[in-house]
Amino acid sequence: KQEVTQIPAALSVPEGENLVLNCSFTDSAIYNLQWFRQDPGKGLTSLLLIQSSQREQTSGRLNASLDKSSGRSTLYIAASQPGDSATYLCAVTPRSGGSNYKLTFGKGTLLTVNP
Amino acid sequence: SAVISQKPSRDICQRGTSLTIQCQVDSQVTMMFWYRQQPGQSLTLIATANQGSEATYESGFVIDKFPISRPNLTFSTLTVSNMSPEDSSIYLCSVEGAGRGEQYFGPGTRLTVT
């Protein structure tokens, strides 16, 4: 059974700092990995999607990497801003045929960026 | 990407009652998904809803408790039946984008059962 772990559970940084969020998964047979952002009491916003054949994806100040063999992904946020404060969730989908849509989520990292 | 709306955005319900949550997508999609996020926990898939067939439920979730309808390619409903305080959660619907396996989520329905 796939398990996804995110470390740290919470992180508080001053504005402008670069930071890294970590995600690990137990089964390396994944179809893709997706990073989401969730604001308090709200739904999820997709940030980055990395296919299993890719090593990294970038969008603006965000960069996500994937090391499938070691079961790890990182989300790098450059020059953090107070508006980045949210919970960041990592999710993987399995490579198994016919069910590569079933996301398994980590519990998330609660990020607070202080002005 | 897909634009997804949910109704209601939040509700407070009494135990023993039922609530139906609606999910509307701005484009036709084959598969729609319903997730639950209990307080302090991550998201758990409840079921997958395909148009024209019965929903497929994940382990631990049953149709009598969470009946789902999927009348067309842009709409689905999830009913939380005979509610108890343990059903207090955020319920989210999602759809899969075309091609890359990316999933998009609605804004969620925050349910509190008293």
Structure overview:
The complex is a heterodimer of chains A (115) and B (114). With 115 residues, chain A is mainly beta. Chain A is built from no helices and eleven strands. Chain A has strands at 4-7, 10-14, 19-25, 30-38, 44-51, 56-59, 62-67, 72-77, 86-94, 104-105, 109-114. By secondary structure, chain B is mainly beta. Chain B has strands at 4-7, 10-13, 19-25, 31-37, 43-50, 56-57, 68-72, 75-80, 89-96, 103-105, 109-113. In chain B, β9 and β10 (103-105) form a beta hairpin. Chain B is globular. Classes of the chains: A mainly beta (115), B mainly beta (114). The interface between A and B is medium-sized, with 23 and 25 residues.
Features:
heterodimer; A: 115 residues; mainly beta; six-stranded mixed sheet; five-stranded antiparallel sheet; B: 114 residues; seven-stranded mixed sheet; four-stranded antiparallel sheet; 0% helix; 52% strand; globular
